[in-house]
Amino acid sequence: MPYIAAIDQGTTSTRVVITTTEGRVVSQAQFEHGQIMPRQGWVEHDPMEIWRNTRRAIAEALAQKDITEGDIAALGITNQRETAVVWDRETGKPVYNAIVWQDTRTNHDGDPARHMRTTGLLHNSYPAGPKWAWILDNVEGARERAERGELLAGTIDTWLMWNLTGGAREPERAVHLTDVTNASRTLLMDLNTLDWDEALCDEIGVPRVMLPEIRASIGEFARVRPRGPFAGVPITGVLGDQQAALFGQGCLAEGEAKMTYGTGLFMLLNTGGAVQLSEHGLLSTVAYQRAGQAPVYALEGSVAVGGSLIQWLRDQLGILRTAAESESLARQVDDSAGVVIVPAFSGLFAPRWRSDARGIITGLTRFADRRHIARAALEATCLQTLEVVRAMEQDAGVAIDELRVDGGMTDNDLLMQMQADILGARVVRPGNIETTVMGAASAAGIGASVIDAPLTLGESTSWNNEIAGPVRDRLVSAWKDAVGRSYGLG
Ligand code: ADP
Question: How far is the CA of 419 from the centre of ligand 1 (A)?
Answer without folding.
Answer: 16
